[in-house]
Design a protein that fits this description.
Blueprint: H1 10-14, E1 32-35, H2 47-52, E2 58-65, E3 70-80, E4 89-96, H3 98-148, H4 153-173
Antiparallel strand pairs: 1-2, 2-3, 3-4
Helix pairs in contact: 3-4
Length: 174
């Protein structure tokens, strides 16, 4: 197959490429055809030329870029058998999946944002837990000493002062 276009619908023009009848892909200007990862396809690997060589395509994804737009397409092709000495033809169906791809990109961006928020929240909780535990430990130990041991007035004042100091630290954190 030559990969020549012998017939096309008006929908092809909506893609923005300058697809003239009978002009091979590699002579076209103003557009590029890329695989799903964004790698420019060599002329012999463009889906319509593969279909013209007899390869059937089942939903292969490409990116069609023009100077003014980017369109994501899913391509299907079926071979039409030759009859009465005429060469075989291929029927190609292009499904525009640009909206789906844009939605997928937005969803992935949202997931990345949520993961970032979760990491920040986890760090915050970890820091807060550590900062709260330090004064609480001092309060607990001082309170236990006051409760468990009969002590002199000087020791009680010292320990209760430590309790008050750490309670004030906690209040300032909140």
């Amino acid at each position: 197959g030559t990969g020549e276009i012998i017939s096309m619908s008006a929908a092809v023009y909506a893609l923005g490429g300058d697809l003239e009848r009978g002009t091979p892909y590699y002579e076209q200007q103003g557009f590029s055809c890329e695989d799903a990862k964004g790698n420019v396809l060599a002329p012999e690997n463009v889906p319509r030329l593969r279909a013209a060589r007899g390869e059937e395509l089942n939903g292969e994804q490409i990116i069609w870029r023009t100077p003014s737009s980017t369109t994501y397409l899913r391509i299907y092709s079926r071979n039409i058998l030759a009859k009465h000495g005429r060469p075989a033809m291929a029927l190609l169906v292009f499904q525009d999946i640009t909206g789906l791809k844009r939605g997928e990109e937005s969803l992935l961006e949202a997931v990345v944002g949520l993961e970032r928020e979760r990491e920040i929240r986890e760090r915050f909780v970890s820091t807060l837990t550590h900062d709260l535990r330090t004064p609480l430990t001092a309060i607990k130990m001082s309170s236990q000493l006051i409760h468990e041991r009969p002590a002199c007035e000087k020791t009680v004042r010292l320990l209760s002062g430590r309790v008050l100091e750490n309670v004030e630290r906690l209040e300032n954190m909140i």
